[in-house]
Amino acid sequence: MADLTEAIKSAALQAVNASKPCIVHFGTVTALSPLEVLVDQRLRLSGNSLVVCASLTSATTEIPLNSNTSENTHEHEIEDGTGDYTQPDTHSHELTGSLSVVVRQALSVGDSVLLLRMQGGDRYVILDRVV
Q1: What is the dihedral of CA 11, 13, 14, 16, to 10 degrees?
Q2: Domains and CATH numbers, the chain
Q3: What does the CA dihedral 124, 52, 39, 102 come to, rounded to 10 degrees?
Q4: How confident is the model at residue 83 (pLDDT cuts 50, 70, 90)?
Q5: 28 phi and psi, to 5 degrees?
Q6: Rounded to two decimals, what is the model's pTM?
Q7: Could you tell me the pLDDT band of residue 84, with boundaries at 50, 70 and 90?
Q8: Could you give the CA distance from residue 7 to residue 113 in angstroms, rounded to a whole number?
Q9: Within 20-120, where are the H helices?
Q10: CA atoms of 99 and 109, how far apart (whole Å)
Q11: Per-residue pLDDT tens for 45-70?
């Protein structure tokens, strides 16, 4: 009976190993266009073999500016015709337009990344940067 149990365990282990379940790897971004990652210092991945999470792509947003600074006494260099270039004044400044802000940065060459090899071993998901 012990031999049958061992045979079943061995068969199950071989089936799991043959299916190549998900495994975590570390890699380094070596190129951006096309994206290329060197995994465990021996395997180069690129193209359709890589799946990139949205959190690793570039995203910016525009923040509208429509306000005034608080009133403050300060000087500006102003030519007033008398040879004086500064005049103290209490006033505010209007802020208009928009400000572009980077919300997340895309991957860069040299970034260390955490990858998950998908079942079957043909594709890798880049989960995140590693610090």
Answers
A1: 120
A2: 19-58+106-131 (2.40.50.140), 61-104 (no CATH)
A3: -160
A4: low
A5: -130, 130
A6: 0.63
A7: low
A8: 39
A9: none
A10: 27
A11: 998 999 999 999 999 999 988 887 77
